[in-house]
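notes to self, project folder thing:

trying the whole complex as one job this time. last attempt i did each chain seperately and stitching them together was a nightmare. two parts in total, labels are on each line so i dont mix them up again. if this works i'll redo the older ones the same way
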Amino acid sequence: MVGMTNESGTQPYAHPPIVEAILEVRFASEVNEAKLRKAHDFIEKRYSDSKTELQVEAKMDFAGRTAAFADRPPVYRLTSLDQTDACVLGNKSVAWVRRAPYEGWTPFCQRVAEELIIIFKALGGPGVNRIGLRYVNRIDVPYVDHIAHYEDYLNFKINHTGLLEPTLIYQWLVVKEFPDTKLKAIVQSAVVEPEIPSLAAFSFDIDIACEVEVPQKADDILLKLEAMRTLKNTIFEAGITDRARELYA
Amino acid sequence: MQPVQHHSRSIVTAPEKVRPVALQATSAPLVAVNDSSVKAAIFNQPTTYTIGRPIADRPVSERLFIALAEAKVWTSKVAMHLELATRDRLFRQLDVLHDPTEWADGDKPVSLESYKSFVRAIIRHSINSRPALSLMPNGNVLAMWRDGEDKLTIEFLPCNRTRWFVQNSTPAGSERTASTTPLERLRDVLQPYGAERWFNGS
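result (full assembly):
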């Protein structure tokens, strides 16, 4: 097993715990409204619905008792009919979202690749200063004697003493840079609201970021995504136990 | 441990709520001098807000879209426990129930909390049958099963509660029973009326 998706890019788990996969490209400078609208119009037909969110910038001067308002370019939120696929296009970034059920890297990346090229063409090659690939996993586990043992499902855990066991909640976040790939990983986990009766839940959230030597062309970005995906998969597989894998089989 | 709040993270569109939200932290120590200039500096930074009318004031089609979108996005949190065919069928039924051209003034779109109870019941009780769905005027989900002359109707209430009605044929004649029960006990309380015939199969 290589990761959340195998080398062919298909989904190896029957019931993957991915709630949301996000790929975000942040622009180095704000793009103008006309180009933004053009990019939106180019990809609009690929989605079933498009909503325009109006943005206003407010600057409060409490000492002077004044406030200044200015209209800002809108944010376009495009979604598929079942809300699993989304694209959020604004003047500072574009993000693609795939919600559960996650079908694998290949279809997700294929959609991103097609639209990234279209959007970059419409925006006239915007500068890019950050690429983020984030997977929010949700792991539902049964209670044993009224306690949910998250440590049985995650290899990454807080090593506190028995004094604090059992915990009511936990939350941790780790940031690590990987000099060889010049990528950064922001990994976090926390107890989250349970949604299924009799099951506790916690998140396992992996955000891989490229913030240095950020590729600027669409083709180079797609190439970089492969390295980001590999790191994300490595962290995921290292982070979960076989018992967690049994939940997804 | 390094401070983490300054790390730039990728967005999420359906953030998980860390629980318990009501957990109270002890107040931070009082500072010797209340440096209001710091706060003023923060407020003087331009901040961008999304603006929009309250949902209740929006056109019907938009209100229906929002209710549907909320239900479908929430479903992604439990999608790993649902068969894909079941999810797709639910979404089709929701879409039909929210057809703007058929929408009656005054009706409310699906209540998210009622919908959650319905989906949780499907997962908790492995309901793989295909009930007819309807919406109560308040937006609660109503699921209906039929077996000949016998009927089972369940209204899914918020907070994992249900209100059900059974019409059951017996040798002594038809009997009707109604009650409310927590979602988790649904199969148990319907057992005398043959829960399997309603919940198992098509």
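what i see at first glance: Chain A has one domain: 18-54+73-248.
need to look closer tmrw
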